[in-house]
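Subject: two folds for Thursday's group meeting

Dear M.,

Sorry for the delay on this. The cluster queue was jammed most of the week, so I only got both jobs back this morning. I'm pasting them in the order they finished. Each block is the input sequence followed by the predicted structure tokens. Could you check whether the formatting survives your parser before we put anything on slides? The first protein is the one we discussed after the seminar.
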Amino acid sequence: MNLIIFSNILLWVVVLVQIAVIFALARQIGILFERVSPVGAMISDSGPALGDKVPPMTLPNLNGDTLPLGGGPGRAQLIFFLSTSCPICKALLPALKSIQGDERAWLDVVLASDGREALHRRLIETENLQDFPYVLSSELGMSFRVSKLPFAVLLDRDGKVAAKGLVNSREQLESLFTASETGIPSYQAAVAGMTS
């Protein structure tokens, strides 16, 4: 009988120690999460450099009239390169819809891709993207040398590259606007103490 009581007490001590260890690890993970800085869009050195004026292009738009690259006078453009098979691209669509609504006064959000038109028309229908200019042009992707998706380019009101980079989250997408406003091209440049 004493052996059973001793083994139960020992078992409870082990369980309590495990609970304490799990609590301590969870706390450390929380502290680590708070200390890790947010990472902005991963800037790419390929394609037009920051500050370069993009070459003039008139692009086919699946949702309306052709689209001039560089926007109209006083209009900036956020070009978001996506794929119909990219889950991260689809996850960022609500953020793009929010940006389009909030920044409508000065910014046009343009979706861009290449590939089969039927797949893109299906994406437009299923994700309700009829309000976006939707460019289907391999020439556009090649001119910006887009190699990974999702990728975004922010063009200022003069058609110059204000910010660009690989964006995997809403925070990285919004970091393009921060980069444009501060003149610091990327989070990585800010950490290194660089400015443009």
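Second protein, same layout:
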Amino acid sequence: MTFPRKVKFDEHGLIPAIIQDASSGEVLMLAYMNKEALQRTLKTRKTHFYSRSRRKLWLKGESSGHIQSVRSIFYDCDWDTLLLKVSQKGGACHEGYRSCFFRRAKGTKVQIVGRKVFDPRKVYGT
């Protein structure tokens, strides 16, 4: 499976991917894909990413079981950012929240606005 040639990967071979809940519109996370991750995502309809810190491919949910089933993929006007609309099983955030965007700025303070949907210590053993 291939993708349009117009897709622009950065100097590290990566493209940012915004992950959004297909039903609610909630933004769940931002991650990066390389060509192989995008090809695997297109083929399997499950999100695959490239970990910049671990320098390897990973399937979202491979450890936790919190898989993202891809409903649609959009390319932005410059072809350098992806938007994936998904059905999320469980939480998207490794800290146990449904979304990685669970902190809200309140002036100079931070307010937790998300709710935990799983205990990361039980899932990851940390």
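Two things I noticed about the second structure. Residues 76 and 82 are 6 Å apart (CA to CA). The chain has two helices and eight strands.

Cheers,
T.
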